[in-house]
Structures are given as C-alpha cells and as structure tokens.
C-alpha cells in the first residue's frame, strides 16, 4: 500500500509571529542597504552634473540619475510596505502575549480559589469563637493560680493609718540624715559616754621634777588642786 499511495508527509508547523517578523526585518535591512547605495550614486551624479556644461553629456548623466532615483523610489515603497507588515505583526504578537498572560492569570486565580475554598472548609467562625473563649478561660485560671501561689504568709493585716504615717515619717527622717551625712543613721557610730555625761578627765599621777621634788601644786584623788592645810586652819 505504501508503494502504491506513498507515505504521507508530515506537515511543517506554520511559522510563528516572531519568525515572520524576523524574516521581514531582515528583508527590510536588505532594502535599506540598497537605498543607501543608490543615495551614494545619486550624490556622485549630482557632482558630475554640476561640473559638466549643459549639453548631451549632462543630459546623459541626468538620465542615469533619473533611473537611479526611480529604483530608489521603488525600494522605498517596498521598505514602507515591509515596515507596515512588521508593525502589524508586532501588534498581533502583543495581543497574543496579552492573551497568554490573561490565561496564566486566570489559571492562577482558579487554582488559588480552589485552594482557598479547601482551606475555608477547615476554618470556621464558630470554631474560632470557641477557641477564643477557651483561651480567655485558661488565662483567667492561670491568673488565679499565680495569685494563689503569690500569697504572703505571716504578714500582719491590722496596721492602722497612724502606724503607717509614723513609719513613713521615720523613713523620711532617716533619708534626710543620710542626705546630710552621706551615711545612714543606723550605720553612724554612737557618741562616747564621756561626751554625753560631760565627766572630768581621768586623774593623772604626780609628776616629779628632774631634781626629784614634787610639783608646787598638789592634786587630790579627784584630780582637783589640793587646798593648803594652813589656809583651812586659819
């Protein structure tokens, strides 16, 4: 059968918009190069026309320049047509890319919507409210436990306002004294008993002169100057 009818050839895939656009751009570049070459020839003929006198030679140069100018106009027409085709292909490519972006966006939205619906089935408002209520109850119980564990033992509760004010006044006095001296009152040294009682100094023993004689003034057992006996008798 293959020998009779032959094998069916696979069709080549149609060219994409980008392929067609690239091919037309290459043709446009080729036409632009031809136009540039014609411009160079026209500029050369222009110089020759300026240098030659009017006559058959000048007319021949003008005829060649006219031919080159017609070719240039033809190529410029082809270039404009190719530019229009490229512009149309670019519009089609832009529209195609826009449709592809829209399709991807719709697919992403559908997938996200399906996933969101599945997640919403597992999360309910009533469950959230119940969970919040349970959390509040647990927090209240925790606070009660902390307060119970934080109770103080053997702390007197019968302190009246007068005792409180007296304690505060004493603290204020201690703070003032500490500010003046720099040392708290309970750390300051106690005064000497002799300063408080203003007692006389301890008695000092009899001193002798270098010759071994007693001093002119004697002292009694209290350390006071002794009164001469003659003055007492007289």
UniProtKB/TrEMBL annotation:
This is Uncharacterized protein. It comes from the Eukaryota. The lineage of its organism: Eukaryota, Viridiplantae, Streptophyta, Embryophyta, Tracheophyta. It comes from Melastoma candidum.
